[in-house]
Design goal:
The protein is an alpha+beta fold. The radius of gyration is 34 Å and the shape is globular. The N and C termini lie far apart (124 Å). Pathway: Cell wall biogenesis; peptidoglycan biosynthesis.
Length: 721
């Protein structure tokens, strides 16, 4: 017995020595096995990058949501006084089917299949993801054993229908490992999917068999890297003005399509862009088979709005004689007769009257004076027949119809030749911007939020000028006359308090199989305009396809409702005062950096500018607008120094100016609502610091009107003497 037990002892000792020396047992690395048993790894989610407007307002972002999981293994309830796993699949399925998009039988099958496979837990796929806090609490109130929730991220579009074909949407897709992450499917979400997608992080640690962190165990953290943020040139407020006005026209006239763009002619920045039909990106409700961004990817025959560029070519060539006369009505070339839109014309009229009447025949005569080849060169200089280079993919080029004399004539009034809306806007910048044509762009910058590094920074790009400053000024004056003249076709586009200029268009729409639709409800009605004329701040282009018009209505009713509403509200929002706008003159912003605060204030006000001072002492450290920027008299400028900040009276301020003030002052101002300031939590003149909470409430002009109407109605209900 002694020898037997002694031998076993030496055998066991030898085994210990062998394992200690080699680190293996039965051919397996023990250290690796232990590492696998006790090591844990937890994934840290990365947020998808934000899409924001030019003022930092959120357009798309990740928001907190929850994912529902069913724990189905009985082992989860070991050593527990309560059940921590699903015990009654039928009851669980019956309750959950009231909250998620799965039937009772589908839930029972999912649970039973995975219980049979001895899985620890199971997810519910798409139906169990993107659950909001309210729904989670409702499900929890049923106290179903084994139903748990973990935090997740959901892509949110807080503005709803908002430049939807431009922004697009992202949807979660399941990967091979069972996890899901958002993938861009359309628009900017798709175009910049790689940049917007973040890199998940992880936490690695050692734990016991129950998952608790072991004493003195190291924990290794690899931080998640959020996706890049994309800042657009869009202005949320102007975009909302556009969306609202387009909704009204859509509801009233039920057109086949609407397309609209708002741009800054001085920079080429796109401030707003939308189309109808549109859709709700959070739910994809309303999304059709048309996923094209029609501003850049769809071509149209522009109609009479194209006459702007024929006119500019004639003036630049020195052949425009506004008081010379021609016979309107018809113009014959070979076997083709070109007619004016009223068929009979207006008799012998001047070329200026011809333009104001939107005469096709006047354009045919002008082409003879310009020369066909010369005109073709001007059209190319204005950017037609080629991509603008906007920072969006799949841009269409359009086709200049120049195969023969008839096609060249019809091009002068926008028929036969095809263009994109963005080409029209680019060409119009040359008219509004003293002959300087600006390339349109939509991306302001792309920023890495993890480091605040600017990865891409897009700047205004000036293209070769197609016309001179003098020609641009003359074209603007003639375009203004189409609105102010008694015979002008654009009288409906007169603004309240602001000057405007532009050109109407009525174009035939090509049929898919050839030929054109015909009839007042089968045309493409359009308008391209600018305001104020003295120093244009906005270009607005609207197209309404095949609206349902009453017998007494004209096509201009549809486009003027959008142009007038968007332009007037946007100019007020941009703090371009309507009073005396016709007398306002462009001003080159002086440089007051380094000057005494009081002296610089007097200097700016002597130039006819309104000043807002941030900090009451020392020298000017910042100014907005920056030196040499173009502004107009009576507009607001901000100068910042040191010392106490005296709060202004914000009433009537636009949201843009509030955001500028907030950015420069670094005050914690909470902005509630859209439009213009109606209330503020602290009165004007209060001395505030960086720790002073300030709330300002805004309302749109329509909301203010409704409030005033309600107040008046309530007063009329009072007893009368």
């Amino acid at each position: 017995m002694f020898l037997l037990y002694g031998g076993l002892f030496f055998l066991l000792l030898s085994r210990f020595v062998f394992i200690q020396y080699t680190g293996t047992a039965e051919g397996q690395e023990l250290s690796t096995k232990a590492e696998n048993k006790y090591s844990r790894e937890q994934t840290l989610q990365a947020s998808r990058g934000k899409i924001i407007d030019r003022n930092g307002e959120i357009i798309a972002q990740d928001t907190l949501s929850y994912k529902m999981i069913a724990v189905i293994s009985p082992s989860a309830s070991n050593n527990s006084s309560v059940q921590r796993h699903v015990t009654d699949t039928a009851k669980t399925a019956k309750v959950l089917s009231n909250y998620i998009d799965m039937t009772e039988q589908e839930i029972i099958s999912l649970l039973d299949k995975n219980i049979k496979a001895e899985k620890y837990q199971v997810e519910f796929g798409k139906a169990g993801r993107d659950i909001n806090n309210q729904l989670m609490e409702e499900i929890k109130s049923n106290k179903l054993p084994g139903i748990i929730f973990i935090e997740d991220l959901k892509r949110l579009y807080p503005n709803g229908q908002f430049a939807s074909h431009l922004i697009g949407f992202a949807l979660k897709e399941e990967k091979e490992d069972g996890t899901a992450e958002p993938v861009g499917k359309m628009g900017l979400e798709y175009i910049y999917d790689e940049e917007l997608t973040g890199t998940p992080g992880k936490v690695e640690f050692k734990s016991d068999t129950k998952g608790f962190l072991l004493p003195n165990a190291e924990k290794m953290v690899t931080k998640a890297q959020d996706g890049l943020d994309i800042q657009l040139t869009l202005d949320k407020t102007i975009q909302n003005f556009l969306e609202e006005s387009m909704n009204k026209v859509q509801e009233k006239y039920e057109p086949e399509k609407i397309t609209a763009v708002v741009a800054d002619p001085k920079t080429g920045k796109i401030l707003a862009m939308s189309q109808r039909p549109t859709f709700e990106p959070n739910t994809r409700e309303g999304l059709s088979t048309n996923w094209l961004n029609e501003v850049t990817e769809q071509t149209i025959e522009p109609g009479s709005t194209f006459k702007v560029f024929t006119l500019a070519s004639a003036i630049e060539e020195g052949v425009w004689a506004p008081n010379a006369r021609f016979k309107s009505g018809s113009y014959t070339i070979y076997d083709r007769t070109i007619r004016d839109h009223n068929v009979v014309g207006w008799g012998n009229i001047t070329y200026l009257e011809g333009f104001q009447h939107s005469s096709n025949v006047s354009m045919a005569y002008l082409l003879n004076q310009i020369g066909e080849e010369t005109f073709n060169e001007y059209i190319k200089l204005f950017g037609f027949g080629q991509k603008t280079g906007i920072d969006l993919p799949n841009e269409a080029s359009g086709i200049i119809a120049d195969s023969g004399p008839v096609e060249r004539i019809t091009t002068t009034f926008g028929q036969g030749t095809t263009v994109t809306p963005i080409q029209m806007v680019q060409g119009m910048t040359a008219i509004a911007n003293e002959g300087k044509m600006m390339q349109p762009y939509i991306i302001e910058q792309i920023v890495n939020p993890n480091t605040n590094e600017v990865v891409e920074n897009h700047k205004p790009t000036e293209k070769k000028s197609p016309i001179s400053k003098e020609t641009a000024q003359q074209v603007k004056e003639i375009l203004e006359s189409t609105i102010t003249s008694e015979i002008g076709t654009a009288k409906k586009f007169k603004l309240n308090g602001y000057t405007s200029a532009g050109k109407t268009g009525t174009a035939q729409i090509a049929k898919p199989g050839g030929g054109y639709y015909w009839g007042r409800n089968d045309f493409l009605y359009s308008f391209i305009g600018m305001a104020p004329v003295e120093d244009p701040q906005l270009i607005v282009y609207i197209m309404v396809h095949r609206p349902n018009l009453e017998p007494t209505e004209s096509g201009s009713e549809t486009t003027s409702e959008v142009f007038n509403s968007v332009t007037e509200r946007s100019l007020k929002y941009l703090n371009i005062e309507p009073e005396n706008t016709e007398l306002a003159k462009p001003i080159k912003m002086p440089n007051v950096i380094g000057e005494n605060i009081i002296e610089s204030q007097s200097k700016l006000e002597a130039e006819g500018l309104k000043t807002v001072v941030i900090g009451q002492s020392d020298k000017v450290e910042e100014q907005y607008p920056v030196a040499n920027a173009s502004t107009i008299s009576n507009s607001t400028v901000f100068i910042k120094g040191q010392g106490d900040i005296q709060l202004p009276n914000f009433k009537g301020w636009s949201k843009r100016n509030i955001m500028l003030y907030k950015s420069l002052s670094k005050l914690p101002i909470e902005i509630v609502g859209e439009g213009f300031v109606t209330e503020q939590s602290l009165t004007g003149g209060s001395i505030v610091t960086a720790d002073t909470p300030i709330v300002v409430k805004l309302a749109t002009p329509d909301e203010v009107t409704n409030m005033e109407t309600s107040k008046e109605e309530s007063l009329t209900d009072l007893p009368q003497d």
